[in-house]
Amino acid sequence: MEILKSMGERLCALRKEKHMRQADVAELLHVTQAHYQRVEKGKINIPTLTLCFLADYFGVTTDYLLGRTDER
């Protein structure tokens, strides 16, 4: 799905802006690094609460993460 790919790309960019590793974000989410890596690659969907947590953590809107707007 294009939405998952877009979300993954944006999560990757936001993570790199904060100088974080995939393992760091995985630890925050209490998932394995491999699981989070699949999120960034757009291979799997995430629960709504996780989406909200990540948006709050990175200081962006859920619509931004989902690629519905370019406004953070």
Order of helices and strands: HHHHH
In CATH terms, what is the fold-level topology?
A: 434 Repressor (Amino-terminal Domain)
Give the name of the CATH architecture.
Orthogonal Bundle
For the record, the count of structural domains works out to 1
Q: Indicate the CATH class.
A: Mainly Alpha
Helical fraction equals 55-70%
Q: What is the overall shape?
A: globular
Number of E strands: 0
Distance between the termini: 22 Å
Uncertain segments of ≥5 residues (pLDDT<50)? none
Mean residue pLDDT: 96
InterPro entries: Cro/C1-type_HTH, Lambda_DNA-bd_dom_sf
Domain HTH cro/C1-type: 13-65
GO molecular function, one term: DNA binding
Pfam families: HTH_3
Could you name the key traits of this structure?
434 Repressor (Amino-terminal Domain), globular, 5 helices, mainly alpha, 65% helix, 72 residues
